[in-house]
Design brief:
single chain; 221 residues; alpha+beta; six-stranded mixed beta sheet
C-alpha cells in the first residue's frame, strides 16, 4: 500500500470514530453504489478502471475529504478549458498536443516519460487568476436545482502538479495535503479542474488578504 493510501486509511479511521461522520460515509458509499452522483465532480477527485461503487472504504473517505473541502470553502477550484479529453496514458505525444490548446495565462507541461514521478506534469500560470470558493450558503437555482454561493479568490502565479486520466482519490487528497494544490484532467472531461486547499497554503498564494472574518484555517461563516 502506498503512502497516500496509508493516509486515506487514517482518514477512514477518523470518520468511523465519529458517529455523524460515519453516517455520512455510509450515505456516500450508498450513493456511489446507486450511481446517484455527478461523474464529472467525482472524476475531479478520483477515477479508476473500477466503478466508484466498488472503491474500498478508505478511498471513499479520501473522496469525502476533498468533496467536503469543496462544499465548505476549504478548497477553491477553477476549470481550465482544454477542448478535448485525454487519450490513453501511453499516448503522451497526443495528450501533450491537446494540452497545447490551453489558453494563457495557463501553461501545461506534460512529463513525456513520467518514469515513476509523483504526477503526470505541471499546470502553471504567470499572472494572478481567480479561483472560486464556496461560501457554505445553499441556494436553489431558477430551474429548481440545488447549489451554493461562490466567491472569487485571487491567486498569484503558481505551479501545481497535474494528474491525467486515472488516479486514486487518495492521491488527489495527498497532493492537496502535501503541495496544497492539484490539477485534474480526467477521462471524458474536456477541462482541467484546478483545486487549491486554503487551509494549507491560502495565506501564501492569495494576492490580497482574505475578507474580514474569513481566515485560511477556518470557514469564517
Amino acid at each position: 500500500m502506498t503512502v497516500h493510501e496509508d493516509a486515506a486509511q487514517v482518514l477512514l479511521r477518523e470518520r468511523q470514530a465519529d458517529p455523524d461522520s460515519a453516517s455520512m460515509l455510509a450515505k456516500m458509499s450508498a450513493s456511489l453504489y446507486e450511481g446517484a452522483y455527478n461523474r464529472q465532480l467525482i472524476g475531479w477527485v478520483g477515477q479508476t478502471q473500477r466503478d466508484p461503487a466498488y472503491w474500498p472504504p478508505h478511498q471513499v473517505a479520501a473522496l469525502m475529504d476533498v468533496l467536503d473541502g469543496l462544499a465548505y470553502g476549504r478548497i477553491v477550484r477553477r476549470r481550465v478549458p482544454v477542448g478535448a479529453s485525454p487519450g490513453p496514458d501511453a499516448d503522451r505525444q497526443g495528450n501533450a498536443a491537446k494540452l497545447n490548446a490551453v489558453s494563457p495565462p495557463f501553461r501545461v507541461k506534460l512529463d513525456m516519460s513520467q518514469n515513476g514521478a509523483d504526477c503526470d506534469g505541471t499546470l502553471s500560470w504567470d499572472e494572478p487568476v481567480n479561483l472560486w470558493r464556496a461560501l457554505g450558503v445553499r441556494v436553489v437555482h431558477e430551474k429548481g436545482l440545488p447549489g451554493s454561493l461562490h466567491a472569487p479568490f485571487e491567486v498569484r502565479p503558481w505551479r501545481v502538479p497535474l494528474e491525467v486520466g486515472y488516479t486514486l482519490p487518495s492521491r488527489t487528497a495527498a497532493h492537496l495535503m502535501m503541495e496544497g494544490a492539484v490539477a485534474r484532467w480526467a477521462y471524458d472531461d474536456n477541462e482541467i479542474c484546478l483545486l487549491l486547499d486554503l487551509s494549507r497554503i491560502g495565506g501564501t498564494v492569495g494576492t490580497r488578504r482574505l475578507p474580514a472574518g474569513v481566515e485560511p484555517f477556518s470557514l469564517g461563516l
